[in-house]
Design a protein that fits this description.
Elements: E1 2-4, H1 7-19, E2 24-29, H2 35-47, E3 50-55, H3 75-85, E4 89-91, H4 95-99, H5 116-120, H6 124-139, E5 143-147, H7 151-163, E6 169-173, H8 193-198, H9 200-214, H10 220-232, E7 237-246, E8 260-268, E9 271-279
Helix pairs in contact: 6-7, 9-10
Bound molecules: adenosine monophosphate.
Amino acid sequence: MKTVSTIQEVREIVKKWRQENCSIGFVPTMGYLHEGHESLMKAAKANHDKVVVSIFVNPMQFGKNEDLDTYPRDMEHDSAVCEAIGVDVIFHPSPSEMYGENFYTYVDMDYLTEGLCGKSRPVMFRGVCTVVSKLFNIVQPDKAYFGQKDAQQLAVITRMVKDLNFDLEIVGCPIVREEDGLAKSSRNSYLNADERKAALVLHHALTIAQNLIESGETNALLIKEKMIQEIKKEPLARIDYVEIVDWENIKAIEQIHKSALIALAVFIGKTRLIDNFIHIIK
Ligand code: AMP
């Protein structure tokens, strides 16, 4: 496994692989890798001759008062994880390698980014779309792997690839959870013991929604209300949003008749956690 920090090095490696007719799988991450990330890497490993993982805490997608500076980082651990899975290249650029001194070009998206995390974190999707476009142009993979954990991001990137004709396929992978149901996240490391317990409220609220839907309930407003009631029982929790949206266009719905995304963002203490499930109607 090689770890490289320049765009030039990635380009040279990829060029050589292409001459050898290798297929390339790509997993973009912000590092501090856990089993959620590992599941994406394993999926890529199973489907491609070569796997590239990027580790880049992208300043452009953080708002002014967000956790860019404190975001957890551990390259030693991340390298060991990638090595064990059989990743071929880690791309670990600096912000200046990615953005240089002057940077004037952005990729942005309307509509799908208006609600949910796009509403709470207004600069995030512009940062995500821009950095992911750059990474796609640098790595030029056949497929890129994203987690359903960030469901709106998965929808946005899938749309961006279609709208801008990127020559690659996006593969969505299921959410990996802790044994008690908490979705794995690098940000879980911010939680103290009490907060860690309180954080289960996200999963509990989603389980309530899932049970209601499975028992035939289609009233999205009623389901949302039950979720909100559950979260309000937890003193350490503060709701950012609880939404039920159409999975195709990420717009709020009142009745669940089509595939729906049930998504929430909740502050546990100072830590903002997200989780969701997608109810597929074929
Ligand atoms: P991040 O490092 O948080 O930007 O995440 C990098 C990729 O890993 C994204 O596509 C995430 O959706 C995915 N990911 C993060 N947590 C999980 C999880 N618990 N299960 C599955 N995928 C995840």
